[in-house]
Every structure is written in structure tokens, then in C-alpha cells.
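User: C-alpha cells for this one?
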Amino acid sequence: MFEMKLFPGGIHPLEGANGKAVNGLNPIRVLEAPPRVIIPLQQHIGAPAKAVVAPGDHVRIGQKIGEAGGFVSAAVHASVSGTVHAVQDAMLANGTMVPAVLIDNDYQEEWVDLHPSDHPETLSAAELQQIVRDAGIVGLGGATFPTAVKLAPSGGRKIEKLIINGAECEPYLTADHRLMLEKAADIIDGIRLMMQALEVDEAQIGVENNKQDAIDILSAEAKKVDGIRVVGLPVRYPQGGEKQLVFALTHRQVPNGGLPLDVGCVVCNVGTVYAIDRAIREGRPLVERITTVGGLVNNPGNFLVRIGTPIDHLIDACGGLQPRVRQFIYGGPMMGMAIARFDIPVTKGCSGLVAMSEKAMEPEESPCIKCGSCRFACPMKLFPSRIDAFTRHNRLEEAEKLGVMNCIECGCCTFVCPAKRSLTQSMRTAKNGIQRKRRRDAARKAQEEARAAQEEAAKKAQEAAEKEPEKTGKEAG
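Assistant:
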């Protein structure tokens, strides 16, 4: 009998007065495409895509407008038909400016020619992987790692298990829950195709047991396919974290600084699996996703949204914000980012938008009382308050020694802190500072190596020049 193992730490955040803001009873609503979409070329971990269209070009839905910029990258496709208005910088939710393709919608809904696979069971693993790469699919749970890279592990590492994340542990967000209820058969089919692409015989779907209806319908569909099992998980945040999910379902512990690949596992979100199924069965690239809009909006719900849709278009579809809104979160309330403008587009990794009241906003910080609550709550066994102290004094080497790079930025430490310290933000600041230093060190090392190579080449050239007169004299003699 399988014994469920809980990951260390974790919390039980509140989900509002009425539990989940949008429950499984609300069907997915198809959102009308906006007049103009803003499609960033950087919607994934890795190298940004490179624009392959120019202002004035006519594009169709599903047409590639951004070519993957490397192996760890993802293609980007038009989500509406119309005319390219501009290729210019646009702001993401994290405040960075990235190149984006702006398309004016002609409302003709004209698609590119699609090439579905009528018999995908006859395709090789490499052919399935290429379809996923061409479709621009990334992790839709929020991590946005290019999925094709997961399907082609490097270094000869053997994949033994496929883990599907249906936990959806973030408060308020229910996009995955509703997707599992409406598209269970497609999700199971996508898992079977992923198993074929990975050449594995076993897959497990982890779903928190507050979604029993989803567990039941997925279990019924899973019985039709060998090797797929649905497992109910305790309700505990961050149950949907890759390392936490792998530990709960397989008892394998991903090493610090490592990936699920290191313990023979690949983890994918249910939304990603559904996108894979559509890419293979229907030939559709990733041009839309399901996004929860919850909290203090007049008509919350789950929406099927075109990639690049400005947030204000979604807010209008929900009947606007309630007067009590004081903070708007891009993502979930635990790991999302507060934003102050609504022209930011929905990207591939946007699983939700939440409007919060003044009570939900972070109060003013006070000094650390050294209670240790953050240490007990951290699922990665870190000591956030000590890392926070080093970060605030710009002592990043000490923060790195304490393992800050292993932080998954889940927000548990900030949630439990009685002093209301911005611990998660400190962790992000330290990680960004360490990464910048690593890039500077790498650039400096490359420059030094190039300078040394030039000096060596000059030295050899000089030695050759000095020997040339000697050789000429001997020949003359």
C-alpha cells in the first residue's frame, strides 16, 4: 500500500470568506479577443524569442511571430488574425521591459493551416518532442520552462516517472480545477502521449483532496489507460511545488540545486498536458490559456484567454472591480506580483489575477523577534530571517552559503512572520544579486581569457618574427 509522505514545512493559507473565490461549479467562459494584443517575445525561462514579423505584416492565428532563440527557449505565435501594429518594448508584470509584437485584431478569426496527427501512436519520441517545440508550449503552472526541453533530457539521464501537477494549492486560483472537470479525457490522452514521448510506463497525477470531483473524473478516465494513477494529496501549501510533489508521490528527494530529472522524474502541470494534447491531436500552437479572475471583482470566473490580452480587457469582462480593491495581484496571492497598471498582457504563465482589499495588504514591518516561525514553515528547510538580515546588509555571500538559491519563493515565510517582514522579497533580492554577480564574474573571466589568448598570440607572432631573419640568414649562407 502506498504511504503518502508530507514535505517539510508548508502552511494552510486562508482562501477568503467563502473558500475558493471561483469554485468548480463555474464553467470556463470563452473571452472575446481584444482589439489589440500585446504578445511578449519573452514568456518563458531561457533565451527570448526572435521576432520574424514586421510592422504592416498580415498574420493569422497560430502563425509563428517569434522564433525560439536557442535550445532553452520557446516559439511565440499570433493569438489573433490581423495586422502587426509594431514590434516594440512592453512591460511585464515584474516591471521589466521586453520586446513584444502588437497585433491589431481584424476579427476575421483566420487560422493558419493546421496539421493534426491522425495517428500519434505511430510517431516516434523525437517526432512528438518536435511537435511540442514547434507549438511553443511552456509550463503553464507558472514556471514557464520550455516543455520540449523536459521531453528531451540531456546527459543520458533516464526518466522513470511522469508526475502531473493538479494540486493547484494557491488560494483563489481554480483554473486547473475547472480544466480537470471539463477536459479530463483530453488531459489523460495528453498524459499518454507524454509517456510515449518520454518512453516511460508510469504516470501519477497529484490532486489536492479538496477537489474530490476532479479526482473522481480523472480516476474514471485513467482506468482506460495503463500506467496512469490519480493520487489525492493533503491540502497543504505549496503542495504544487515540483520538489514537494515529487517527494509526496515518489518518496524521492530532489537534491538542493537539482531538478526532478536528477531523481528520474519529469513534472508537468495539467494545463501543459492539455496544451500538448491539442498540439498533437489538433495541430494547435499555444495561443490561449485558462486564467482565474478572482477576489473583489463583480463577476469572478475562469476564462479562456488569448495570449497577449491586456488585463483591463479581462477586468471589463468581469464587470469591473469593487470599490474596496486596494491591491491587484498578477498570479496568486502567495507567489504573484502586485501591479499598478492594467495594460500589462496575459502571458503563457498567467494562471490568475486577484483583486485584494486593504485588509489583505501587507502591514508595516517591525523588527524580527527571532521566533523561528519562518524556519519551520519553509518547505526547503532554509532560515529566511537570517538570510533576510544578510541581504539587507548586502552580505550576499553569507546569504548564498545559507542556501538562498534553493528558495522557491513560495511566500510561506512572509505569510507566517508575526513581524510582517518582507522575507520573500529579500530572498528574491538576494537571488537576483547573486545571479548578477555570477554574470559579471563570468563576463570578467571571459574577458581575461580573451586578453590572455591575444597576448599569447602576440607573443608567438613576435617569436616567429624574430626567428624569420635568422632563418633568412642561414638560407643566404
